């Protein structure tokens, strides 16, 4: 089987971006590392694709959308909006799911490196070293639905902090005081939790650490975390799921315990995906302006591909509430 750049990187113990620098004879690479990579390339008889090299500089009119989790329906929404705007501008979108695995992140980037003109990296990317190398190499990259404060990289996202604040504020206005939070260990989740904390504080309440659960990113994982809240003697009267998947997990946990929604428990999610309309009761959620987000990220990336000389940008759009049947005043009154 013909060796790939990924095979060379793995054998040399370096990233694919470092191998690419050696192939293209650019970047600051130590002589020792450069010689090691060249030796491995010779041993494995590796040759860069002639077709890929020929395409370099001409453009492929193709953009890669890298997502962390194909099971979350929000990414289907992202793809729909991004693809629509991309087609209007003459670009094709290819999508790859990393399953939150840094090795898969590197593999996908490596396989697509010479086949696409740029990358949209959505929501979560664990291999920060690779992301840094891409930006330092001048590869067009725009982060979507998340930011990296430590990197000078373009990003387009909804305001997670404001969304978390507004969801919690709404529950407080309904009369809920004990509000649970089911989150995840991601930057966007942390921002939404920060908004949750601030909304409580602004109303004179202190966030209770025992009411904040951070755990699995699946419906079952969220159900487990929400179950821990609902099994408390002083259980919350409302739960804010950091995304719709988490909120659906909370609904599942409530249903298995015979807790009626919204009479005995209000639940609100985040993302306003198709899940909201098919749940019973229909799920209230924080709605992101997905069409405008998709338009902005495509337009920004294409300007980078075209060599536009402009400062790096962090674009944040404002979310809104989509109120449905899963939230009510404590005791069930609307």
What does this structure look like?
The chain has a six-stranded parallel beta sheet with strand order 2-1-3-4-5-11, sandwiched between helices. A six-stranded mixed beta sheet has the order 7-6-8-9-10-12, sandwiched between helices. It is 44% helix and 16% strand. It is α/β, with parallel strands linked by helices and 334 residues long. Helix 1 (5-12) crosses helix 2 (16-23), helix 1 (5-12) crosses helix 3 and helix 10 crosses helix 11. The protein is built from 13 helices and twelve strands.
SSE layout:
Elements: H1 5-12, H2 16-23, H3 31-43, H4 50-55, E1 62-67, H5 74-88, E2 92-97, H6 102-112, E3 118-122, H7 128-136, E4 141-144, E5 154-158, H8 160-174, E6 179-183, H9 187-202, E7 212-214, H10 219-230, E8 238-241, H11 244-256, E9 266-270, H12 275-278, E10 284-287, H13 290-305, E11 314-317, E12 320-322
Parallel strand pairs: 1-2, 1-3, 3-4, 4-5, 5-11, 6-7, 6-8, 8-9, 9-10
Antiparallel strand pairs: 10-12
Helix pairs in contact: 1-2, 1-3, 5-13, 8-9, 10-11
């Amino acid at each position: 089987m013909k060796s790939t750049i990924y095979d060379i990187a793995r054998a040399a113990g370096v990233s694919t971006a470092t191998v690419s620098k050696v192939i293209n004879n650019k970047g600051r690479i130590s002589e020792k590392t450069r010689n090691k990579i060249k030796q491995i390339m010779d041993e494995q008889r590796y040759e860069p694709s002639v077709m890929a090299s020929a395409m370099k500089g001409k453009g492929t009119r193709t953009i890669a959308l890298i997502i962390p989790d194909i099971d979350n329906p929000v990414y289907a929404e992202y793809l729909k909006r991004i693809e629509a705007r991309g087609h209007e501008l003459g670009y094709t979108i290819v999508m790859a799911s990393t399953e939150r695995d840094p090795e898969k992140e590197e593999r996908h980037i490596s396989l697509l490196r010479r086949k696409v003109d740029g990358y949209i990296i959505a929501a979560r990317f664990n291999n920060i070293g690779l992301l840094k190398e891409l930006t330092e190499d001048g590869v067009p990259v725009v982060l979507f639905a998340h930011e990296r404060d430590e990197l000078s990289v373009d990003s387009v996202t909804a305001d997670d902090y404001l969304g978390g604040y507004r969801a919690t504020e709404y529950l407080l206005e309904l009369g809920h005081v004990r509000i649970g939070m089911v989150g995840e260990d991601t930057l966007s989740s942390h921002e939404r939790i920060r908004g949750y904390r601030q909304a409580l504080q602004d109303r004179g309440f202190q966030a209770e650490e025992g009411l904040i659960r951070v755990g699995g990113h699946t419906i079952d994982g969220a159900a487990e975390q929400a179950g821990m809240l609902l099994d408390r003697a002083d259980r919350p009267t409302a739960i804010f799921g950091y995304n719709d998947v988490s909120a659906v997990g909370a609904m599942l946990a409530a249903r298995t315990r015979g807790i009626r929604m919204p009479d005995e428990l209000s639940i609100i999610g985040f993302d306003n995906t198709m899940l909201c309309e098919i749940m019973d009761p229909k799920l209230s959620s924080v709605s992101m302006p997905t069409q405008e987000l998709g338009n902005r990220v495509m337009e920004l990336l294409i300007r980078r591909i075209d060599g536009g000389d402009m400062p790096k940008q962090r674009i944040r759009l404002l979310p809104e509430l989509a109120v449905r049947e899963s939230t009510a005043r404590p005791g069930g009154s609307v």
